[in-house]
Fold these 4 entries.
Entry 1:
Amino acid sequence: MTTVLITEAGGTVALNIIKCLREDKSIKIVAVNAQEYAVGLYKADKKYIVPRATDADYFDTLLNICEIEDVDVVFPSFHRLIPIYAKNKDLFEENSIKIIVNDIETFEIASDKFLMYKKLRGFVPMPKTYRYGDLKTQKNMYPLFMKPMRASGSENAQKIKSEEELEHYVALSKDSFENFVFQEYLDGTEYTVDMLCDFKGNVLSIVPRVRLEIRAGVSYKGVTIRNRDIERIGKAIAKHFSFNGPICFQARESTSTNEIKLFEINPRVCGTMVFTKEAGVNMPLLAVKLAMGEEIEEKELEYKEGVVMLRYWEEMYLDTSLRNALK
């Protein structure tokens, strides 16, 4: 039996990892979270309430749980906390525990849209990307897409159609506009692509999908496709980064050139990776198998084109009446 500990059990990513790992009945799932009412805690085999990841005793608590439960693999899930785990990767490896996380340098560069642009420019098709100070020397650049350098989804993102709009949004962002990038606006089909690498950075599988419906940057409807241009982008990215396990990236087509351009990399499991499982490639589960040194069969890396995802809300109910009666 393999025991996997999943952190931040209340988030969408954690729930998707749990769904994926449940395909293997031999895996025991331990979930942890700082708050009691986190759905993933009640989907796991064992659950623990822990300090916040930023607390001084967090990692000691986590390592203690790993010892109690004989944990083999730790799977961080919340994107804002991934750097904390990357910086403390050695704590787990020193205790013979595998942790599915990219190195901190890889994470920091891939997650920063401007640093990513500088690293991949000339190797991968990408929209022209600027910092605010660069815009004064540019001509005929509108429309632009303004977005935070490090945020995910559509958080604080705006389409900018003129210089007047640019100055309006810069004024709203006050002193934080230096934390934004300004990208060439892409108006064509948008894609999210899940990619699995082994722990030497070799690409094992690339599964693209068209984003059919997006709400607040999150995909609610999509369909898997095959596209050689996207596969080439994925392989090119992997040549310039050293990825471990599952990642995802986003690309969009320019209708003026019919070229698909990379605009974002998320070097981690993403919130809709469970979609790729249903298409045939269970990337979180395969990452655990890789971490445990198990062989991956070729059929586990094959996916079906034309699988459609329709996402919806689902509820969980807990009966706390007995516990309250005993107080």
Entry 2:
Amino acid sequence: MLTRIEVAADRVRDRCVLRTGDLSPRRLPAPDGTVRVALVAAGALLLAGDDVRIEVVAQGRLRLDIVETAGTVAYAMRGGSARWDVDVTLTGGAELSWHGEPFVVAEGADVQRSTALTLDDGCRALIRESLVLGRYGEAGGRLRTRTRSTLGADELLAEDLDLSPGHRSGWAILGGARCLDSLTALGHRLPDAPQTLQLEGTGSIARRLVTEQHTSDLGDLWTDLQHSSTTSWSARRHESERDATCCAKVAE
């Protein structure tokens, strides 16, 4: 079932419309100019036959923070399969911050996961995604991911990963690791680092291949980036409001 988060900037009060599907979005307190939404499972997830769809639309000069209250486990599906599809659209200078909790694919699960992100010029996104193959002591099931991102008229990122048993153990994929932890920046760049890929367009991906998700240092990087991005966002928001006020005065 479709879960939808739609927010729009407004000079009086930013608008937020939430629709519950397999996940229940709930608005949380946040500073002016920021809409903060928690995603809570509305039932048992992820089971054979589940078709989870999440749509996110942000319009105008605002910041949307999405947090997940708990990780997701894709359970053994006994020959069945499940889908998890995310579609994000950012326009008018909107910014998105989405901290995903671990997505665990248990042994016997079969999951297809897709993410599509469409950003207007001037928009930004920062997304953390942690894919874990198997619970403790398990080898993990089948997972295939597809990611597509555009910035303005340009394709920014196109990636397909087959993390199924027999494929993921290759040295160019996971090797001996069972967790793929990623930070993806779109519309801006992460600091240069040995394990950070700078995209041809304006964007970056930082990744860690680890045996246990909690050993990844991307959590620390996320915290640092959130602090700096919050400060810079406030400055950009105030500048935008000042420009709008000046334009209004000129029009008068």
Entry 3:
Amino acid sequence: MLVTSRTLIKVIDQGAGESINAASIRKLLAFVSGAQRTTDSLVADLIQSRQRIPEERLRADQVLVLQVPNPEPLRPVQPDKPIARQMRADADYRRMWLQLYEQIVRSGRVMQCAAYPSLVNGRHVMPPLPNPRWDVPKLHMAQHLTLLAAGREKRLHAVPPFTRVEPLVFDDVPYLVEDRRDLTCHRSGARGFLMKETPQADGSSLHEIGLARCVPASGPPRRACLTSPAYCPIMFSAARYASRTVSSPRSRIPA
């Protein structure tokens, strides 16, 4: 069992632990299993989250459960479920590559902000997470177990510890995460992290690292660009791809 009376749980919803959904799930888990609750990612045994991954490096004995609204990664480009599952079984991800290429051609860059396609262990494209691109590198060679749960469709996927999780990128178009170097956490003064924004009555905004304990301002900033070939060996060349003749899939380009 994942949750028992001795389990210390933390629940995050949309980057915060104080939302109604997070409070309700936390209360339900505690009521059903008798588990204890915490707001500290470093001491929790099990962390359930939606749309964000904690900033701290999780331990090997911790379990991260991520809510996945859509367990089929090819569904955005192939709405027919049986065909999409067959394509995934055959590792046929050409339409996903084409979708990314079309975004570059139309907008000059990849417009996929959330649910960025990622390849697990060099073979399987994982179910799309509704997380920002900032979170994708956190799963790469992570020492903890990650479970991807799609409750509505009763499907469960797992990313074992120390598994390669690499975003699909072209070798001449580097993978970029959100640039937040100009934002400062109003609680700790830390910079270089993805933060949640809280609008104020005067029209200004306060920014806060909502998923981690506040770290000192001298803490190391997160890299804003992952361009190392050693990090992303799963690469295609956009220039070479342009010369291919591929039927255009039904793709949706974010605004």
Entry 4:
Amino acid sequence: MGRIFSIGIAGTVLAGSILGCTANAQAVASQPAEGSQPTVASQPTVVSQPTADSQPKVPPTVTPSGIAAPATDADTADIAVDPASLLPDLPTLPPTKASLIGGTIQKVDRVRDQLTVQVFGGGKMKIFFDTRTHIYEGSVLGSAPDLRIGDRVYVDTMLDGSTVFARNIRLAAANAISGRSQGVVKSYRADKGELVLRDMLSPDPVKLRLTSRTQIVQDGHAAYANQLVPGTLVDVNFTSQKDGRDAQQVSILAVPGADFTFGGVVASLDLHIGLLVLTSSTDHKTYEIYLDPSVITVDDRLKLGADVTTVANYNGTRYVARSLTINSR
């Protein structure tokens, strides 16, 4: 009994020693090391929220006067760019003298910007144009789409290297353009009122329409349409319509078999083919007179500048001299 009691006391002492060591170890661990600073528990950081007054102020965008603000995508979405504005400007036209050409548009090539014009009096001409060309319809400024086949035009042309270029193109303000043709009658059909001429300057026959308003004259007096026999030499003033040419006046200059007297100065002479060109002292026009060596005797007095008088017969194609007199000065 006494042994048991002593063992209990010893166990109690041992447990107390263990607890005491543990307490001392905890006390040693909590003491700061020699020479070190005591640790201070960190305080939680408090982030302050910016107030309205503390927000940075961004200065407003100011656009200088007269300078547009930059366009946004929304502003430029509907803007279309003209492809022609991307091309370089054409050089200005040189200040050369222009020549006036009148005729009818036979073809329009809008790819090459080229007109083919049937020239009044005969022949065809290809004429180029571009944005430098001024196109007028009467007194109104027109454009290239106004150029149509069959239109009558007057073109101020100039040479651009080896090509003919149109400085100005003038379309008729009205539906008619006046013209003139001189030639020999090939045929006349009274039922259709159609007169066909062999124009002196045109390789193609010229068709004209005689109407109730057409005047026919000879030597200043009224004449008749039945006098327009083949071979008759005529001078015609006409107006060009969309559907043809209407003759305004037909002047009969010569009928086959008629004799004419010409007086004037020899302008040209070719005795090899028997051709004398005379400038009339009356109307100052030139006439071709053919010399038949079996009829006309030529001497040294017949030369350029000689003053002559001749009676010539018109045979339907040309004047043939029946007599020739060289006048003394």
